[in-house]
Amino acid sequence: MLGTGLGQLASEITDTYEFPYQDIPNFPISTVEGHSGKLIFGKLGGKDIMAMQGRFHFYEGYSMKEVTFPVRVMYELGIKTLFVSNAAGGMNPQFSIGDLMIITDHINFFPEHPLRGKNFPTGPRFPDMHETYDLSLVALADKIAKEKDIKVQHGVYVGVQGPTFETPAEYKMYHLLGGDAVGMSTVPEVIVAHHCGIRTFGISVITDLGGFDDPVEVSHEEVQEAANKAQPLMTEIMREMIKRS
Ligand code: HPA
């Protein structure tokens, strides 16, 4: 599942079958600039792969059921591992723009829970979340990053509804609460994947910084540009992980 400005990996998939979202019954259609919106099936690193280029965000007006519908489809098609990427605002003072942050945990700040309502039989009513991001995949990412001399950070991703970026006080608050990066995606899809028993790995590209003493402006264009710049390194890690996992 490829995030804002991070679609490059999809172009490396071979033997592809591509399905624009608008051609798939019941699929929502992505509306944000920078998301081209298609499901791509094919091969990458010797593995059968299904890529979702462009995702659905809660701020676009979709319900949580719609936001996470593609994960249900992935589950029904038998995927075993979900790799997610996103652009996020860094709040940890150790972070710089362009850093890659391996997601070790998340904090769910979305106003509606994706599992609200009748429980799907893919998992329990009250799912355990003690290891939502697979530790062996985190270890594999670390190993690959070390081999390739790519600097990676680890951290907690805070999922918020957007569409506003955070005020300086909000960045500070999310950091105080234990977050290292904040973004408007990922958490709903990861919760549903986890409920389906799918192993999950997530990586954030830090595209802007908030919560520091000197508040700075942030824009979608800036986020896209920073994500694009950092994407070759993220792609390298993801590509190798897919091959080895
Ligand atoms: N906040 C929320 N979402 C984001 C940010 C941010 O600073 N950067 C990229 N996505």
Order of helices and strands, N to C?
EEEHEEHEHEHEH
Query: What is the CATH homologous superfamily assignment?
Result: Nucleoside phosphorylase domain
The level 1 CATH classification is: Alpha Beta
Ligand types: hypoxanthine
CATH architecture: 3-Layer(aba) Sandwich
Shape: globular
| Mean pLDDT rating | 91
CATH topology: Rossmann fold
What does this structure look like?
The protein has 245 residues and is an alpha/beta fold. It has one domain (65-244): Nucleoside phosphorylase domain (Rossmann fold, 3-Layer(aba) Sandwich), CATH 3.40.50. The protein has five helices and eight strands; from the N terminus they run βββαββαβαβαβα. It has helices at 64-76, 135-147, 168-176, 187-195, 220-244, and strands spanning 14-20, 38-44, 47-53, 81-90, 100-108, 152-159, 181-183, 199-209. The strands form two sheets. It has a five-stranded mixed barrel, surrounded by four helices. Strands 1-2-3 form a three-stranded antiparallel β-sheet. Strand 6, helix 3 (168-176) and strand 7 (181-183) form a beta-alpha-beta unit. Helix 2 (135-147) packs across helix 5. It is globular and about 45 Å long. The mean pLDDT is 91. Bound molecules: hypoxanthine (HPA). Hypoxanthine binds at residues 87-89, 165-166, 182-184, 207-208, 210, 218, 223. Its EC number is 2.4.2.1. Residues 7-243 form the Nucleoside phosphorylase domain. Keywords: Glycosyltransferase, Phosphoprotein, Transferase.
